[in-house]
Amino acid sequence: MIPGIEQPSSSSIDLRVRSLSQLFESFDPSPFREKALDPAAHRYILSCAQEFAPHTPLHLTVHLAESIHEQIGVVVEGIHNHFRLEAENERRELRRQMRIGRFALLWGFLILAACSVGRSLLSTYPDALAGFFAQGLVILGWVALWRPIEMLLFEHWRQRDQCRWLERLATIDIRFVYFGE
After folding, report:
1. What digits encode the pLDDT tens for the residues 110-158?
2. Residues forming a β-bridge with 59
3. DSSP state of 170
4. What is the pTM of this model?
């Protein structure tokens, strides 16, 4: 908290819905409480949430047509289920990426070792062409480590952040405001 500056107690994401088909994926044959959110609604809610500071309390205000007010339980359950499943999928993908990254890192070190051995063998030849290839092998060995290191050190932060946001949205406080037809 910054001294002298009042911090908001809660931040609202506003969503206006005339029918449940605007909110939930229309091609999904599941009942509403198990349906996936419409991709546009998912992107909108997630991008709005990510505009706020990570620890700012959030709530989703759904402006709903009065004719569907009896289905608010379905809406709440459907939104929470959607983001819970998305968070589980993102965690699963993160674990898969980390497993691939560790495997790729192992191969990168093996390639680096092979390139180092090749460089040592080439360094016994005194001509310039052998020196050129020896230097190329060193570069190739380090390049083989580039992508695994990028995956393990940098890319997983984006996925972890995405998981945290999806987990927050899986339990977001949902409020309703009704409007006439």
Report:
1. 999 999 999 888 888 888 888 888 889 999 999 999 999 998 888 888 8
2. 12, 173
3. T
4. 0.74
Same domain, 18 and 81: yes
Three-state secondary structure of 7-72: CCCCEEEEEEECCHHHHECCCCCCCHHHCCECHHHHHHHHHHHHCCCCCCCEEEEEEEEHHHHHHH
Gap between the Cα atoms of 148 and 150, Å rounded: 5
For residue 93, is it within any domain?
no
Domain that holds residue 57: 11-88+171-179
CA dihedral 73, 64, 56, 2 (to 10 degrees): -150
83 in the same domain as 17: yes
Identity of residue 19: S
